[in-house]
Amino acid sequence: AEDGYKLWLRYDRIQNKKTLSLYQDQLKQYTFMGSSATINAAKTELRNGLSSLLGKKIPETDAIKNNSIVVAPLSRLGANADKELRAQLRQLGKEGFIIKNITGGGKNYTLITANSDIGLLYGTFRFLQILASETSIARLSVSDFPRLQNRLLNHWDNPDGSIERGYAGRSIFEWNTLPGKISRRYIDYARANASVGINGTVLNNVNANPNILTPEYLVKVKALADAFRPYGIKVYVSVNFAAPIRIGKLATADPADPAVKQWWKKKADEIYQLIPDFGGFCVKANSEGQPGPQDYGRSHTDGANMLAEALAPHRGIVMWRAFVYKNREQDRIRESYDEFHPTNGKFASNVFLQVKNGPIDFQPREPFHPLFGAMDKTPLMLEVQLTQEYLGFSTHLVYLGPLFEECLQSDTYAKGQGTTVAKVIEGKVSPQKMTGIAGVANIGDARNWTAHPFAQANWYAFGRMSWNPELKASGVIREWNILTFGNNKVLLDGLQQITMQSREAAVNYMGPLGLTMLMDISHYRPAPWRRDKPAPTGTRESFHRADEKGIGFDRTAAGSDAVSQYAGALKERFNDIHTCPEKFLLWFHHADWDYKTSSGKTLWNELCYRYSAGVYTVRAMQNKWETLKTLVDPERFTLVKNLLTEQEKEAVIWRDACLLYFQTFSKRPIPAELEAPA
Ligand code: GCU
């Protein structure tokens, strides 16, 4: 059955007969040099993958034979590694790998080599992906390495099994049966992560239950760490800043109090006693009601640096989150920058500041968070969200690769042109000792892990683009499409179209032209009226600021001046309504209803047009999917078809609710041609 459990590691039989026979000729046996848990994992993967792809069992041999696969670390290659190969490997670091056809000693073989066992595992996964995509392996020469050191999933999973903003079932972490039971799912989770290069996981919600740090839970954390270790995955936990009070029986959690410092030091020692390679702490402090150092008149840096000091002897890290807002008098999008910009250079060397991609909160489209252009002395960890909190949960098909790419390739102008967010987090704009990225997981105990079959692609894309933030979303989804649906050309073209237009469709029906935060309290459906009472009566003034004159939030120098958080050239561009990219028009400007947009339409008509385009694109996705019916198994075909039907209904609701509401301000008709059938 096509239950999707295997994700992109299906290893379906090679369809093309010619390719299959070429593979069979070249891959007659395999040999591994060295032994470790990681090598065993690679061996199992290669054995299972080969027999499934090639449709027959491939024997393991002890020595290098003709037409074989050789998996060996550089240290074991001896004379089989020439100068060139050694030089090449030196460039690839601990986790990089080389896959290469070698002719030597009268034998032809495919070599997978690396500086470490984990590099071999990554190379093995890549090799299997190459085979699964049925590309030629006659002249292989692949070398690759990760551009970021820390590539983490963040689970917002709670110890009771619920998941904050989780839409794919309950948590996969079965705390009740740990440490005794290591479920098969943990291993498959680790395999999936390793196959795309994810090398760390924060096991619990940033709104952290303090109990995760009790001895009872730490042995469970250890069991997971042991299960994931062979796959190169370190475990981390989110900690509650008030843990010294909540579980430590101290009267305070003040970071300046010696007893508090001592408590964290001992806690860190206790953890590393159990888990010598434990990764560190993720912290949400003084944000949305969570405790933090400010409760005691201390700063974010005081709090982070105290934890950093406790972890430093063990080489652990702190990921201190920059997601804060509380000043109701202010433009919310300014707050994170305003609060953290002054901390530049003040964090201890093992502290990351973890910053969401945009300044609000994982909206369908936001400009990049201005901290990315402003923290040259602080390592920044980019946080993106895979779970579709604001993008239709697990009902809407929205491929997030383009969202990641848009953020990563945004130019911060921090040090002149070309200093993109990707280069900032890679430490290429200002050198950083640590680099990293985090993705809020979209995984649950649904049989297919993510509930929507296409949501698997967001997990995959996050991994691939963490490994290399310069990758193109279109190339990444092509890989996933092949690995998930096979190699049929018509099918692949169709899937490419559907996936690549899906994010823009969602932006259009949920928040076109820079509109944002229009959803109801569940974050699923539209409620643009929700925040339209001016402060202090309402919780906050609306984000869209629609009135009789126009719509949009004035963040120019004449308004909230959020534009000034961006570097000079960019600030000017955003500040001027005529140079501001249209996708951010209403993010930065309050524009008149009759303002002429680049299409020549008035703003009101353009808004109507975009909302309606969002709906039409979903219908185009439905139609395209329908044409693929005979090329996809019935199970997945029907599931996706039904989900698209729901998505279309929701898109219509978004369009109608928003336009009818905004029309009460614009008092202009909805253009008739929009009513044309799809
Ligand atoms: C969003 C989300 C919360 C989450 C928060 C965070 O506001 O709705 O559930 O806790 O982000 O990132 O801390």
UniProtKB/TrEMBL annotation:
Pfam families xref list: Glyco_hydro_67C, Glyco_hydro_67M, Glyco_hydro_67N
Occurrences of domain Alpha glucuronidase N-terminal (ranges): 7-127
Listed GO MF terms: alpha-glucuronidase activity; xylan alpha-1,2-glucuronosidase activity
Record Gene3D superfamilies: Alpha-glucuronidase, C-terminal domain, Chitobiase/beta-hexosaminidase domain 2-like, Glycosidases
Protein keywords: Carbohydrate metabolism, Glycosidase, Hydrolase, Polysaccharide degradation, Signal, Xylan degradation
GO BP annotations, alphabetical order: xylan catabolic process
GO cellular component terms given for this protein: extracellular region
Residue span, Glycosyl hydrolase family 67 C-terminal domain: 450-673
The protein's Enzyme Commission number: 3.2.1.131
Family affiliation: Belongs to the glycosyl hydrolase 67 family.
Assembly and binders: Homodimer.
Protein name (record): Xylan alpha-1,2-glucuronidase
Source species: Pararcticibacter amylolyticus
UniProt lineage: Bacteria, Pseudomonadati, Bacteroidota, Sphingobacteriia, Sphingobacteriales
